[in-house]
Amino acid sequence: MLAVAFLAFSLFRFVGDPITQMTGVETSVEDQERLREELGLNDPFAFQFARFTGDMLNGDFGFSYRTRQPVAEMIATRIPATLELGFVALLISLFVGIPTGVYTALRPRGVATQAMLMLTLIGVSIPTFVIGIMLIFFFGVQLGWLPTFGRGGTVNAWGWETSFLTVDGWRALILPAITLGVYQLTLTMRLVRAEMMEVMQSDYIRFATARGVPMRRIYFKHALANTMVPVITIIGLQFGGVIAFSIVTESVFQWPGMGLLFLESIRFVDIPVMGVYLVVIAFFFVLVNLIVDLLYVVIDPRLRIRDVS
Amino acid sequence: MLRVEKLTVKFASRFGDFTAVEDMDMAIAPGEIHGLVGESGAGKSTVGAAIIGLLQKPGYVAGGTMTLGETDLRSLDRFEAHVLRGKRISMIFQDPQTSLNPLMRIEDQLIETILAHEDMPVEDAKQRAVDLLEEMGINNAADRMQSYPHQFSGGMRQRVVIALALCTNPELIIADEPTTALDVAVQSQVLDLIRRLADVHKVGFMLITHDIGVIAQIADTVTVMRRGKLIENGPTAEVLGKPKHDYTKQLMNAVPPLDRKIDRFMVPNSEDTEESTTNTGEAAKDWLLEGEKSAPVGLTLKDVSVAFPGVRTSIWKRPTPFVALEDISFDVAPGSVMGVVGESGSGKSTLAKALTGLVKPVSGTMTLGGTPLPGGKDRSRHHPSRQLIQMVFQDPFSSLNSRHRIGAILAEPLWLYGLVDDEDARRKLCADMLALVGMAPGAIDKYPHQFSGGQRQRIAVARALLARPKVLICDEPTSALDVSIQAQLLNLLKDLQTAFGLTVVFISHNLSVVRQMSDDVVVLRNGRIQEQGGSEQVYGAPQADYTQRLLELTPAMPKEWLAPS
Is the domain of B244 the same as that of B345? Predict the structure, then answer.
C-alpha cells in the first residue's frame, strides 16, 4: 500500500506543474509563487510525501485542483457505481463461467464444448470497448431494449447510491456489466475447465469412482471443490483487475464511476484525484487478496492450524 | 467367483492398436488372495482396471470374458457397471496420500460411499463406519473420523482407504500396489490386515505388486505376467517353489535376499541392456584409474546435527526447530561402502544433503580424508570437495535436465572442474564412459526422455563418475526401478566401486539391497543412530530392538523356494 502511495505520489509530483494548470495565463508570477507556497509545493519531496500519507491515514484526501471539492467526497460518490458494476460483472462471470467450465471439462469432445471454446476464444480476442460498442449497437440502437449510457434511476440507501433497487437502474446496468464480465467469464471458464480436467485424473476421483460414489456427487462435490482452490486465487486477482480496469467500460457507457472520474482527472491534470484513485485501487487489490486468502482457509482444511495427530 | 478368460486389452493409437494385455486367464475364489506380479509395463494394472471397468481411454477390452459370480462384466452398460463398482468390486490404490479427497472429512467420505449402495438411515451408516475403522485398527474412531485425510499418517490413511473399499462389503477388492508407498513396519501391518479381511470376511483380493517378497508372504495363488502375457500361474508355493518358467526363476533371483550376501545378482535377460561389443569403455576406465592413483579417502562425521526451522505458531514466539539429525557420528573407511538404512522421515536424505553441502549442520564436524568439510553455504562453489563428492539421486526422471542431450549432461563435470579442456576429447571420453556403464554408443546424442528409468540411472552414475570423485553418495538409487533393472544397476555399482576404489555412502530404505551393497551399515531412526557396525554383523546378530524389528518385518521369500546360487 505504502509503495503504491509512494509511486502514485512521486509520479504525479514530478509530472507537470499543477500551478500552471490551475491558473490562467494572466496570473502574475508573484501570485503563482504565493499559491505554490500556500499549497506547500516548495517543501522538500520527502516532507511532502510524509504529509500526503499522513493526511490520507487521517481520511484527508486533499482537494481537487479542478473542482475544489474534497477528493474524498468525489471518490465516495463514484465508488458505489464502480463497485456495483464490478460486482454484477463478477457474478455474471461466475454463474456462467463455472457451469460452462465444468460442462466443457466433463464432455471434452462434445459439440457444445467445441462451440463454447470457440466463443470464448472470440471473447478473449475482441477488445472490451468493441464488445461494448457492439452491445450498444444491437440492444441499444437497433432493438432499443436497453439504455446505452448512465446509471438510470438510483436510490440513495444509507448514503449508498444504488441502482439495484430500481428497474431502470438494473436495465442500465446490464450492458456495461456484460461488457466488463465477458473477459472474466472466458477466463473463469477456461480455468475451471483446465483445473477440472486435471482433478478428474487424480487418484481420489478414480478411487471415488471405483467405490461407486454417484457420478453426480463425484463431479459436484469431490471434483468441483478441489477445482475451486486455484480458481479462487485467479478470480480474486481478476476482480481487483475488474475494478481497476473498468475505466474502458465506464467511458464507453458513460458510467459515472471511478474510472470515468479518473479519465476526466487526467484530462485536467487533476493530480490529487489521480493519486487518490491509484491508492484506492491498490486498497481494493489488497482487500480482495485478503478475502481470497481467508476463503482458502475455509475451503482447504490443510491450511488450518495443524494439530499434531 | 471371479473368472477371467482370454482377456485382451488394446490401446487404440494413430499407428494401429497396441496390445497391452493378451489372452489373460485368471480365477479368484472368495477369501483368496491372488497375487499378480510382474515388472512395470507388464500390464498388471491394466488387468485390474479392465475388471473394474475403469480402463483409461483410449484403452478398450478387445476380447475374452470376465465374469463375477453370475454377472458378465463385459455386458454391463455404463450405469450398471457404476452400480457394481463399490457394491461388488472395489479397489485400493497405491498412494494413500493422493487417494483420499483432501477437502472432505473421513466420515463424510465413508458415509457417502455406504449410502451410495445401501438404503439406510445416516446414523446406521455412521455406526458402520465407526465399527469398520475400529476393525481396521484405528482407535477412537468416532472422533478420529472427524479429521481430514492430511491429519493421518501414511499407514493410517491406507487403513482408511481399505475401510472405504470394504465399507459396502464387496466380493472382490483389487489392490494395486497397496503397500509400495509404505515403510516396512506399516507395510506388514497393512498386509496382516488384508490377510485377516480375506479370512474373516471372505473377500477375494487381487493383489497387484512388483514385490515378489510380498506375494510370497501373503498370496494364496499367484500369476506372473510379462509384457501383457501370462507367464505362469498357480498356488504360490508351487509357482515360486518350483517355477516352471525361466522368467519366474529370473525374477526371483533378481530379488536381493535379506538373509545373506551374494556377490552378483542374476539378471533376467531383457532387451533393455544394449551391451556394446566394440567399445568396452577401456579408455574411460584408464582415465578414471589415472585419477584414482592417489589412495581412496575416507569420510568422517562427528556429532553432526541438522535442524530445520519449525512451523511458526505465533508471531511472538520463535518456532521450535525440527531436528532432522541428532549427533550423528560414523566413519566411512577409505574405499568401503557404508550403507544407511531407515524408514521415511528418519533423516537419510538429510544426511546426504549435509554431506554434499546442500544443508548446513547446526553443529558437529565432517571431514573428508582428514580435511574438514564446511557445511552448507560455507562450502564455497570452488571447494575441492564439490568435485570429490558426487551424488546419484533417487528419481532418474528429474535428476537429468530434459532439455540437454546426454553428451552435454555428461560433459558438464569435465569442463566445470577443468578436467578435460579439449571439446573433442571430452566427447570421446563421454562416449567411452557410456560404454563403461553399459549403454549403446548412440546414446550420446539423445535426450533423457528417450531412455527408460534404469538407463537414465546409468547415465546419472556415468555423470557422477566423470567428475573423478573419491566419494559417491547414492540416495535410494534403485527405489524407482524394477527388481531386474535394480539388479543390473547394483551389479554395475559394485563393479565400479571395486574397480576404482570408490568410497560409497549407500542410502536406502530397502534392507536387503543395503545388505548386498555395504561393508558397514548405519541404522537411522528419527534422526538418531540406532545401531552401527559391520554389515554382516548387524544383519547377522542385530543388537538394537529397532533393527531386529525391521529385519523381522521385511517380507522375504522362504529360503527353500530360492534357487541355490
Answer: no
